[in-house]
Amino acid sequence: MLPFKRAKFLRQAFGGLGLYERGERKLRGVMEMNGEKGVDFEENSGVQDQAITPWTVSVASGYSLMRDPRHNKGAAFTEKERNAHYLTGLLPPAVFSQDLQEKRLMKILREYEVPLQRYMAMMDLQERNEKLFYKLLIDNVEELLPVVYTPTVGEACQKYGSIFRRPQGLYISLKEKGRILEVLKNWPEKSIQVIVVTDGERILGLGDLGCQGMGIPVGKLSLYTALGGVRPSACLPVTIDVGTNNQKLLDDEFYIGLKQKRATGQEYYELLEEFMSAVKQNYGEKVLIQFEDFANHNAFELLAKYRTSHLVFNDDIQGTASVVLAGLVAALKLVGGTLADHRFLFLGAGEAGTGIAELIALEISKKTNTPLEEARKKIWLVDSKGLIVSSRRESLQHFKKPWAHEHEPVKELLAAVKAIKPTVLIGTSSVGKAFTKEVVEAMASMNEKPLILALSNPTSQSECTAEEAYTWSEGRAIFASGSPFDSVEYNGKLFVPGQANNAYIFPGFGLGLIMSGTIRIHDDLLLAASEALAAQVTEENYAKGLIYPPFTNIRKISAHIAATVAAKAYELGLASRLPRPTDLVKFAEGCMYTPVYGSYR
Ligand SMILES: NC(=O)C1=CN([C@@H]2O[C@H](COP(=O)(O)OP(=O)(O)OC[C@H]3O[C@@H](n4cnc5c(N)ncnc54)[C@H](OP(=O)(O)O)[C@@H]3O)[C@@H](O)[C@H]2O)C=CC1
Ligand SMILES: CC(=O)C(=O)O
Ligand SMILES: [Mg+2]
């Protein structure tokens, strides 16, 4: 790398432009500097929050340029670029367009029969040629989402120690206590806008995977970029390693994390506190911290503790709630009535279950002008000990207490379905196959169109499959699941299941927060995101029984979610980026990163 200063040029190019203007103008392309040749180290687009510091800009050429994933174009370097940047001879003679590179890679990916091989090929690509990775992901989102995200990312985390190649993300372990700020400074990017952090204790529905949970922040952040248009260099995946209670991992010689039981209590909270303070100190007030896949005994407490001091968001509690509420609101078109006319039963009363329940209750309460406590009475939850009822109140975890309604104890889900007579059944239990034939049949016997959401991930943990839901309900169920299922043919009719996954929400939600400079998250922002997502379901989608729009349109959907969330943030006085752009959808679209190669002169 040859560092050199470009202060004069950059001042000419950017001088005097406010941040807001810069977002709208969408800077991209090549920079030519007084006859010097150099690669544009400014990523093309994405929301930028901080001023560019010209004297840190450096230029790579030749071999190191090809080894730099952010700027490598591989076979797409033109003859001129190869000559100008000392690449001649380092590449085979053929010059490929980005489209041809994409075609070639998709062909190779499709030849792999094992999903994990596709995952590894995608991770290799991300490490080799970032723009091509995002182009593949954006152009083939329905096909590749299950590869870089659920279900395959679950298997990848389980086997992370064995498939581990180049490390991704930042690892902060108990060993770094007292010097987390120093560790953050080791990360090469300085202008971070989103951090997804896990401690690996509840990875999807697969339990404690310790340090190997890193696959989740990495995967979620690739969706922030591909689906929400947040530039890759602004994304920081973090895994906090406080040990693991997974004996299999502790006994595994290839385990990549600390080989000790999980730290708890004060030791745990002190490390998290140091991390949260260091993040704020290093990246400022407006960096978005997304908690992901923490176990519920920490998740609720961390959210409550930091929601007033940091821009924090728990995806499993809040993002999931927002996506499910959107699906329910959309489903009303198919099943009729208002939300308040329905009765909801959950299997699973943890982060996802109680998070969704609370947002549904809030929406009902707002729409019907009834107290929240009244609205909650329409919602029932079953945990591993049975229906949550008032006689269990004393022994319940705090997040379950609001759901302890008057009812006699009920042990089993089937009995609960028969007793509560729900119109909507939601699975957030991580227990695969928990929606048995009897349960689905009971739902179908009570409802013309039973609404069944099997949200647990990955596919192995789904409460039922799409095929089971449609067959056992004789084709009457409206079904969506956390991990994707193929379409099902039943009685000569094709049923297309939807995917109820927080991936619909967090990328657009995050973009909305970043582009408006929102400083704190309010529940109304989650409701706004739900509303925006529900509004994106078209008549054509409804005709297929879908309650979510297809992921193919996700960037457009994310721009709408971002705009609606930002509008609400401005309305609530939570947005700090002024003046407010007039057309927020256009502004959101203009802020989005696109993986187009720049031309290097
Ligand atoms: N589709 C999506 O977008 C999302 C899906 N999820 C999925 O939801 C699942 C749950 O996540 P989360 O809520 O965070 O996990 P939690 O651990 O917080 O909650 C799990 C809940 O399931 C209950 N449960 C466990 N076993 C049984 C059983 N045999 N019968 C009845 N209830 C049982 C637990 O009961 P108890 O409290 O008694 O232990 C607990 O209430 C995961 O699989 C996750 O992947 C999560 C977030 C988003
Ligand atoms: C989707 C997700 O966040 C989960 O399953 O945990
Ligand atoms: Mg999660």
Low-confidence stretches: 1-42, 49-56
Shape: globular
Helix content range = 40-55%
For the CA atoms, what is the radius of gyration? 24 Å
Number of strands: 16
The main pleated sheet reads as: 7 strands, mixed
Beta-strand content: 5-15%
What distance separates the N and C termini? 17 Å
Assembly category: single chain
Q: Averaging pLDDT over every residue, what do you get?
A: 91
Give the spatial strand order of the biggest sheet.
10-9-8-11-12-13-16
Q: Which structural category fits the helices and strands? A: alpha/beta
Hetero ligands: NADPH dihydro-nicotinamide-adenine-dinucleotide phosphate, pyruvic acid, magnesium ion
Number of H- or I-type helical stretches: 26
InterPro entries: Aminoacid_DH-like_N_sf (IPR046346), Malic_enzyme_CS (IPR015884), Malic_N_dom (IPR012301), Malic_N_dom_sf (IPR037062), Malic_NAD-bd (IPR012302), Malic_OxRdtase (IPR001891), NAD(P)-bd_dom_sf (IPR036291)
Domain Malic enzyme NAD-binding: 317-570
Active site: 149, 220
Protein name: Malic enzyme
Describe the protein in words:
It is a single chain. The chain is α/β, with parallel strands linked by helices. The chain is built from 26 helices and 16 strands. It has a 7-stranded mixed sheet with strand order 10-9-8-11-12-13-16, sandwiched between helices. The longest helix has 21 residues, at 315-335. Residues 1-42 and 49-56 have low confidence and may be disordered. It binds NADPH dihydro-nicotinamide-adenine-dinucleotide phosphate, pyruvic acid and magnesium ion. NADPH dihydro-nicotinamide-adenine-dinucleotide phosphate binds at residues 202, 204-205, 296, 316, 320, 323, 347-353, 382-385, 428-431, 455-457, 461, 482, 500-502. (S)-malate binds at residues 202, 457, 501.
